[in-house]
Amino acid sequence: MDTQKVALVVGAQGVIGCNLIAHLRDQDDWNVVGLSRRGGESAGRTQHIAVDLLDKEDARAKLGGLRQVTHIFYAAYQHRPTWAELVAPNLAMLVNTLESIEPVAGNLQHVSLMQGYKVYGGHLGPFKTPARETDAHFMPPEFMFDQQTYLENRQQGKPWSWSGIRPAVVGGFALGNPMNLALAIAVYASMSKELGLPLRFPGKPGSYDKLLEMTDAGLLAKATAWAATDPRCANEAFNIGNGDLFRWSEMWPKIARYFDLEAAPPLPLSLTSVMADKADLWKQIAGKHGLAPHSFTDLSSWEFSDFVFSWDYDMFGDSSKARRFGFHEYVETERMFMDIFDDFRRRKVIP
Description:
- The protein is 38% helix and 14% strand.
- The chain is globular and about 60 Å long.
- It has twelve helices and eleven strands.
- The strands form three sheets. It has a seven-stranded parallel beta sheet with strand order 3-2-1-4-5-6-10, sandwiched between helices. A two-stranded parallel ribbon has the order 7-9. Strands 8-11 form a two-stranded parallel sheet.
- The mean pLDDT is 96.
- The chain is α/β, with parallel strands linked by helices.
């Protein structure tokens, strides 16, 4: 690897990581190393490594030779059933990554930490909106606090800097990802159509008319790379949203129209429950329409979707800090959804 910058993308197979790799791959001055449990196919200036970051020895063995890494983009996540149980594994993976790379990467310049609105307590219930980067922390546990504190402390006196990137719900292409709202909507709509049903918003009463925002994965990739390479962004956190707000009451009928469906009145449904017996139906749909052979499990993120659709309170942040520091790109959220659905169709993920 002989280009100016070498990115280590941790969590390379997730919706954030794979879209970041796609963005960096398009830039002439980046080489990329992607880390994930599954690994991937290396090609051109992109190398993939399968590693268990919860295993300190495996991390050191697999990462100890990556001396040319200049930027770490950390977007890995391990799910656990409770907020408290999330802390240990998610902190350990970051620690094992940095402590494997930092001693050998003599030209390490930046560590980018992917965060989110959990920093503001958005997952717990109604919180102050618009959320700002200066908002006070709440009572832990919250693994994002531990990760940021670890980075801040380790960075003291070091030549490298860090940034915290805080997107809203991220929209983009990735399979086998537990947090892909757009894919869940697309599969749910495709099944509704197959069954001759209208498209019902399945969320909690009260969630249909609250203000929300999303973050396009491509936009997020650009913002993440910007913050990692602009000296003004050193040791700062940034909210990154599309730049507009929406309500499901306005967006849902537009999504229904995309799939040639009527939008019926909302009805609270647990997608986790109603989709539990739908693998055979999806197999039928895939055969009928000649879809790519993805397993139903790889297309499912029902638990996360139920979580998002349960937000009967406003969920948005103030992204003006990023603009003040020089990042001015935006994406219209309606266009984002339609482009993602088009992409799913091109890839034969949905009919």
